[in-house]
TrEMBL record:
Ranges where the DUF112 domain occurs: 20-442
Entry superkingdom: Bacteria
Segments crossing the lipid bilayer: 20-49, 109-132, 138-158, 165-184, 204-223, 359-382, 394-422, 472-491
Pfam hit, one: TctA
Signal peptide: none
Biological source species: Kocuria dechangensis
Protein name according to UniProt: DUF112 domain-containing protein
Keyword vocabulary terms for this entry: Membrane, Transmembrane, Transmembrane helix
InterPro entries, alphabetized: DUF112_TM
Amino acid sequence: MEQLTLLLEGFSNALTPMNLLWVLIGALLGTAVGVLPGLGSAMAVALLLPITFSLDPTAAFIMFAGVYFGGLFGDSTSGILLNTPGNSSAIASTFEGHRMAKNGQAAKALATAALGAFFGGIVATTLVVFFAPTLVRLATVFGPAEYFALAVFAFLAISAVVAESVVRGIAALGIGLALVLVGVDGPSGTARFTLGLPQLFDGISIVVITVGLLALGEVLHVASRIHRDLVATQIRPKGRTWLTAADFRKALPAWIRGTAFGAPFGLIPAGGAEVPTFLAYGTEKQLARRRNDPEFGTTGSIRGLAAPEAAGNATAGTAMGALLALGLPTSATAAIMLAAFQQYGMQPGPLLFERSGDLVWALLASLFIGLVILVVLNMSFAPVWAKLLSIPRHYLYAGITVLSMLGVYAISASLIDLWLLLGLGALGFMMRRYNVPVAPVLIAVVLGPLAETELRRALAVSEGDPGILVDSPITITLYTVLALGLIISAVQHLRHRHDHDRTPIEEDVPA
């Protein structure tokens, strides 16, 4: 139980009035920046990093802990309320969370997200403390072929599960893959689909795509139906602002499943928390289909929000373990944290626990403290955040549009990005109009570069032999599970269509 003794020493260093004040400030600032559309958790850490340079290392890292998880809370808050996730890891939480918010249950959705993030973060941080050496070994078995298989698994599984139509899901996946082809090809240095514009050499930013498809697409969709939908001019909260015992019983299994998805993915650089959050969401959708859950996809499901939220924070928790033990940043936020460590002359890796053990264990202890402070803050402020939706709809959506444009422009100060935002907003509107799912587009944008890079690496290692792609137990298992899942999904879609086609005929038969 050496780890427990060291962790208690870390708590003794972290639990001082001044350090608690720093973690509280970090949590508040991280959440505030994360809530702003277009910024997100990575930007929160980057913007607040200079503030910590005047602090001693222990206070700085404790403040980092608050900023780190606070930014993740803020990502989900903006996604649930405004349909504009602050980071791509919060996209899956947005689908059911925003439906709950539009149904007047914004405070309950925020409470579900806060508790789910707390649950996933606590479990993952505990695993890091006690099982870091064992968990890190899982990362060493993944090579280029395994990463490519994982990306393909995520592509097709999510396209088949999330979409009501497999054809529409695959079409949406194709749109996403087309978007990521824009830019300079890394290995060859060749410009692809840039129309000769230097501003497109770096590709289309994930922020532009996410804000355009989700936020601006939703604004245009609502504007097109504002005279046809018999709705009030504002969304009125209803029900309780906390979880009832029945809600908790619904959410708990989803939190557990989401944590189980998220914890392993924090150890491998497979696109951050996007894969486990989408897989967790897809699993909940499949389970909802089996139990005929009328809330999923309509008024918003607690399970569909709880699982990806727990998965995202579980991934963030174990990502911190991979960063400390291996020096391996598995997300953009972790990469900025690595720069912060180096600023203080610390190099994360196998020797970090020996050379700077007191700081590391104080940081791990502060992760627990930060999660507790954040769940208390967010549970308390959930009704306050929810009042954003009390603003009349025409003012609310006008504000979302302005914030979206400002957030995108603030990143690169490029007018091309604003035109792209408008074009992608129109694309998002057309996808909603013709019932084409947005999720496969987003997962393709997030994982497309990873899939292309790892495929090229695998083929380079094998000198062009495609057999390397199915040459390990992990790849064979992933492809086998994927094939079985697609077959089952196709059968379910055909059965659902068959039952749907028969229903009108059966209704016309006289009694």
